[in-house]
Amino acid sequence: MPVSEDVLLGFETSDDAAVFRLRDDLAAVLTVDFFTPVVDDPYEFGCIAAANALSDVFAMGATPLVALNILAVSCSLGTEIVSEIIRGGSDKVREAGAFIVGGHSIDDDEPKYGMAVFGTVDPEKIIRNKGALPGDLIFYTKVIGTGIMSAARKIDFETDESMRPVIDFMKELNDKGAQAMIAAHAHAATDVTGFGLVGHLHEMLEASDVSAYIKWDDVPLFDGVFEHSSAFCRPGKTFDIIDWASNFVEQGNLDDEEYNNRMGVLCDPQTSGGLLVCVSPEDAEVFIRKFEELAGRKPALIGKVIAGKPGSISLV
Ligand code: CO
Ligand code: CO
């Protein structure tokens, strides 16, 4: 139950960030995220952690303004590594047009970094999880498989070289996708993170009382992702997500093996994933053009919203 009618979005929905009304035409958007290192390079880890934390603000169609660092490191890590992490974070925040204005650090054997981000939005223009309509086209703005690729790197199935595009995508801000979805008056959006592509799509569909289909062949994957998934080279968390997601992702006429291999990909937890955006067919061209103009590549059209059991997803 909201403590105040100015709490526009809080605990009760699975939206990406909390929203608090400051004035009729202005609301504060608040989010926090931090995690353990996902790459070896401390500077790049800082960039990824910041891009990931900022993403929940962009996913709401809001503008980030300031951020606070959250850092847990052991003294034995050395000041040089710590300052590289923070430099990465602050460079990303600056790229997003925002500023780091403080933070807090504690002593911890397992390093962790991230930030709390404050942004603003016109309450009338918030783009939520809820609002997708039958007929909307579903776009994804990055490439799926960061969890699988990181798992594969750990056992030397991938190299530093083959990980380059994966790291570059994780470092990329979702600001361009956000600008494109605002221009295209998107009906609903979220970013894809720890619950994988179908986990986050499900939340959006359920909140919108609709269902969807995904065109499997049109889901953009990093090279090797499907093969690694089929060889069960996946992050441990994926298996729990598949258990949950098999309740709403229909198997259709896929045999068990093919269904499970695809689910390994579709349930792969993403670090700093892209935006999942629902746009009316009339506005799709605006979204594609704007995103391409800003990002230098096209967003992937991966499926369509349809009327049906809220939250259910079929693969075609
Ligand atoms: Co999110
Ligand atoms: Co988050």
Gist?
The chain has about 325 residues and is an alpha+beta fold. It has ten helices and 13 strands. It has a seven-stranded mixed beta sheet with strand order 8-11-7-12-9-13-10, with helices on both faces. A six-stranded mixed beta sheet has the order 1-2-3-6-4-5.
What coarse outline follows from CA principal-axis ratios?
A: globular
Average pLDDT, rounded to a whole number, is 96
The CATH class name of the largest domain reads Alpha Beta
Protein structure class: alpha+beta
Largest sheet: 7 strands, mixed
Please tell me the CATH architecture of the largest domain by its name: Alpha-Beta Complex
Model regions low in confidence, pLDDT < 50 over at least 5 residues:
none
Supply the CATH superfamily name of the largest domain.
Answer: PurM-like C-terminal domain
The CATH topology label of the largest domain is Phosphoribosyl-aminoimidazole Synthetase, Chain A, domain 2
- What is the share of helical residues? 25-40%
